[in-house]
Amino acid sequence: MSDITEPAFKARELDAGDELAGVRSQFVLDTASDRAADAAGVYLDGNSLGALPAAVPGRVEDVVRRQWGELRIRSWDESGWWTAPERIGDRIAPLVGAAAGQLVVGDSTSVNVFKALVGAVRLARLSGSARDEIVVDATTFPTDGYMAESAARMTGCTLRPVAPAEVPGVLGDRTAAVLLNHVDYRTGRLHDLPGLTAAVHAAGAVAVWDLCHSAGALPVGLDEHGVDLAVGCTYKYLNGGPGSPAYLYVRRELQDRFDSPLPGWNSHAEPFGMRPDYEPAPGALRGRVGTPDILSMLALEAALGVWDGVSIDAVRAKSLALTDFFLECVARYVPPGRVESLTPVAHEERGSQVALRCADAGEVMKRLIGRGVVGDFRRPDVLRFGFTPLYVGFGDVERAAGVLGETLRDGVTGD
To answer: What is the pLDDT of residues 201-210, one digit of tens each?
Structure first.
């Protein structure tokens, strides 16, 4: 066999041994007949928006036509609408290493970051200590930074942005809460959740983690590592759909002391008592706020069915194999010097995406999408490729790298 065809043969061998290959049929994906330009239709943007699970449209139609159309108000009880936030939270819990009763689904990631951070500062101050500093990941997704700044103003704290690796060195008696991303959204770097959580606790502070780019892609271990509070979205690796509700995790030992800055009627101990005074509900329910977004929430519940019988450890193993193979194929197909990987080589430092620095990256991604390889572009010069093990195969990886190489050899960057 010639050198240039070796990756294609390897891809077929890897796909033949893929224990998760059968899950792909549970998603709505392009077929060969759908691909306009060539046979390279590959979706590598599940780290922004997961593909549609095939069971979702039928479930949504039932929710709209029968539950809403026929049962109407009765569906709050008869169709389980009222208990959906905690019921769906319990379905997500095993994917992030949490026991039942600690996750509640609802609101956006941004709103949950705010709830978690303000709640974290209030928890830290229960001991009577005058903690007045919030440490935040300086490389965080912008909305986390915005919310952290607002939470700091509300609680009278100083905001201290630092790189995750520098966090242990800045912690002290003033630190109230620390907000970190499990995986960096630009580079795909996986941060040390166990080690950083332990450092935060050693300083007497409260650890808050954003799991948007790790939940559904790799083991998290919230309970195992003693994480205090965590938030995450559901439209990436959990495939909940555009704008699907986020979730809030409150460790069981902290639930009776968690004081949300957004007390709503849905988190009241007697939501239908219509009392003027607020009394928080027990457990994770106090993380609720207002009326749940039922249509998107039940679409998410249907989407989570693809996880039945799937091991998150198997997902992680395939994720690493996919990203390893992609980097191998990029090295083989892409002309030297055209791209630089920003994603760590070490498995313990890598999430489930590969970020490549590339001159004229915006134009390159447009060309890739035009040929059926869908990733995304992050300013100023980053090509991002997300690898969702439930529906991405090794043949997809080889084709994507091949098209990237052809695109760059064609001189898109103007060299």
So the answer is: 999 999 999 9
